[in-house]
Structure formats: C-alpha cells, structure tokens
Specification:
Length: 138
C-alpha cells in the first residue's frame, strides 16, 4: 500500500490541505483590517502610483474571500482562480518571478490553488452538499 501508486486517504488529505490553504489565505487577507500593515504595503514603490491603494485593498480582499471560500469548500474553483490571479500578480508583477528562490512562497499558493481547481473541493465541502446529485450529506 505505501509504495503503491493508488491514493492514500485522498478525501481526508485533500480536505486537510484545503482547510490549511484557506486558513493561510484568511491570515494574510485579514491584514485588510490592519491599517499599519496596509500603510507598509502602500510605501512600496509598486504601490505609489495613483491606483496603488486600490490594488492593495483588492489583493487583500481577494485573499480573505478566497480563504473563506476554501475553508467552507464553497465555490472552490472560483476561490482557486482568485488565489491564482492574486498570487501570480505577487509573484510576477511585485516580485521578479524567480519561483525557484525569491518568489517561491506566493507561487506555492498558485500550485495549491491549481490542485483544487482541478480536483474540486472534495467530499467534505459545501460544494459537495449543494451541487452534487449524490451528496454525502443528503
């Protein structure tokens, strides 16, 4: 079993990873309510243009919303797209796109979001409950 190519605890494992990803995104998105942290971002050269404040708030709101959606397992593919877009912006526009070193952490969020874009939220989710014909909960 251990050396088999078959999945091991796939449903539980993906649920745990989805919840962790959501928790991290909520943690980072919660900075939208921290004026000191927002002002730190606004001091960056990338955000000194006229729409810099809007970009910071939209980015933090996207992180927070995606995190909540991942934790709930609701509209998971939309949460994935929000995360992919936000983290690609951070990786390639704010960062240098050096995904093997400097900009590795935001790019890992992209990869995790891609997992859930392709697999969906899984059995233990509101997506399953609301949108599946053979829901576990019904």
């Amino acid at each position: 079993m251990f050396f088999s190519s078959s999945p091991v605890w796939q449903t539980s494992g993906l649920t745990l990873i989805r919840l962790t990803l959501g928790g991290f995104l909520i943690y980072h998105g919660w900075e939208i309510f921290n004026e000191v942290k927002i002002n730190e971002y606004l001091a960056w050269d990338n955000f000194k243009q006229s729409n810099g404040k809007l970009l910071v708030y939209v980015g933090k709101a996207a992180e927070l919303l995606a995190g909540i959606l991942f934790v709930l397992g609701l509209f998971t593919r939309i949460a994935s797209l929000l995360t992919i877009g936000t983290m690609c912006y951070i990786t390639f526009m704010l960062g240098n796109g050096i995904i093997w070193n400097n900009d590795q952490h935001p790019f890992l969020f992209v990869l995790l979001a891609l997992v859930f874009f392709f697999t969906g939220a899984g059995r233990f989710s509101l997506d399953q409950y609301l949108f599946s014909k053979k829901s576990l909960y019904r």
